[in-house]
Amino acid sequence: MKKQLFLVVVTVTVGFYLLFGGAAFAAKTKVTYWFPGEAGQEEVFAGSAKRFEAKNPDIEVVNTPLPPNSADINTRLNAAKLSNTYPDVFAAFLIYMGTRGSQGEFEPLDSYVAKWSGKNDLYDSALKLGVYKGQLLGLGYFPAPVLPVYRKDYFQEAGLDPNQPPKNWQELHEFAKKLVKRDSAGNVLRSGIDIPSTTAPDLIYMETLMRANGSKVFDEEKDEPAWTDKGAIEALDFIATLWKEKLSMPHSNFQWMEHPFAKGNSAQGWVMTTVLTTLFKNDPSWKQKIGFTPPMGPVRPYTFCGYRLFTIGKDSKVKDAAWKLIEFMMEPEEMWDRYTKLLIPPVRNSLKERFIQVDPAMNKALADAVTWGKGKAPLAWTSIGDKYLGQAYEEAINGKKTAEQALKDADRGARGELKRLGLMK
């Protein structure tokens, strides 16, 4: 009798566990999370996800690190759309607010942010850059400024003051001529300044100088190209002059770790903060060698500052849990962790003073870049514009066309394609 009673109790207990405990386990919410995986970022973002799971045991985060360039990411996203596996939380480039936001791929975050106490501490750029057609589609968490930099030791070697970076384009040009090194045949051994020989698929360098000279490049209000003005033409002509004077080694603008500056073969250039992270990690002596050039321009201080933004997939079935993950990633402690490990500037006002105090020279440069910089225009057709601008760039630096003619032809080509696609009247 006792044995039978024992079996009944065990059976009921196991059944109870399978019914309730098993159900609870099966009910655990899964959030798919696609985040940056380049330059050592995978470990940092995956670590944040683990801390989130520890605080939210009812949610499981399924991590997917992304490749470094937008072309490969676009391929992954297109495949995800076809297979109904679009991520619940996606760390999107700013350009995607237009190219993909216009296709209805992202859930508007306005209602979530309206109830979020953290919004009042956020930089304006983090809140406003993700707005497309009046809706907040992404929350900025990862400003990615491209910093103008120079080598202090090379300056000193060339007889230049290592603590006095160029203040304008004229000095930028003059310094580059003093800093360049060539062999007896005229081949560049060390660049005076990095000038990309090809911009595809990235126009950061070109846009930086155009915007610094007063051009809009892309008119977001009128939703049309705006690169035939005086500012844009003068900027491209300046770039072509630097290239024709053989002040730089050939390289692609997009492959940041392959830039001559990143390899120690250039005296002046522009670098992503993630490149600096890698350089300092691999060789701490770089920290003393690099100086920072303040954002400059004939018309306004400017440098490129991209952004990555947290988005929620429009078709996500777990939007509340997805927002909960985003909210956690935007906490001050998580921002500070990303800064200490990846040099990603925090985007909370309450962290700004602490941020600058840690490394006044570099972090002041980062703060200035975030303040003065601007990323890619969030338009539905930005990639089309980039295609024609890239052609204009290469035509101008290779002497096939004047800067003015190259940009006018690019404008004509872009407008024609946009009209054929029904994206412009």
Q: Any descriptors?
A:
425 residues, alpha+beta, D-Maltodextrin-Binding Protein, domain 2, 2 domains, seven-stranded mixed beta sheet, two-stranded antiparallel ribbon, 18 helices, 13 strands, 15% strand
| Oligomeric form | single chain
Cα-atom radius of gyration: 25 Å
Give the strand tally: 13
Structural class: alpha+beta
In the CATH scheme, the class of the largest domain would be Alpha Beta
Please name the fourth-level CATH homologous superfamily of the largest domain: Periplasmic binding protein-like II
CATH architecture of the largest domain: 3-Layer(aba) Sandwich
Structural summary, described in words:
With 425 residues, this protein is an alpha+beta fold. It has two domains: 28-144 and 306-372, D-Maltodextrin-Binding Protein, domain 2; 145-305 and 378-420, D-Maltodextrin-Binding Protein, domain 2. 47% of the residues lie in helices and 15% in strands. It has 18 helices and 13 strands. The protein has helices spanning 2-26, 41-55, 70-82, 96-99, 110-114, 124-128, 152-157, 169-179, 204-212, 230-244, 273-282, 286-289, 319-329, 332-342, 352-358, 360-372, 382-397, 403-420; strands spanning 29-36, 59-66, 89-93, 131-132, 135-136, 139-151, 181-182, 188-190, 217-219, 224-226, 268-272, 290-292, 305-312. Strands 1, 2, 3, 6, 11, 12 and 13 form a seven-stranded mixed beta sheet that branches. A two-stranded antiparallel ribbon has the order 4-5. A two-stranded antiparallel ribbon has the order 7-8. Helix 15 (352-358) crosses helix 16 (360-372). The model is unreliable at 5-14 and 16-20 (pLDDT under 50).
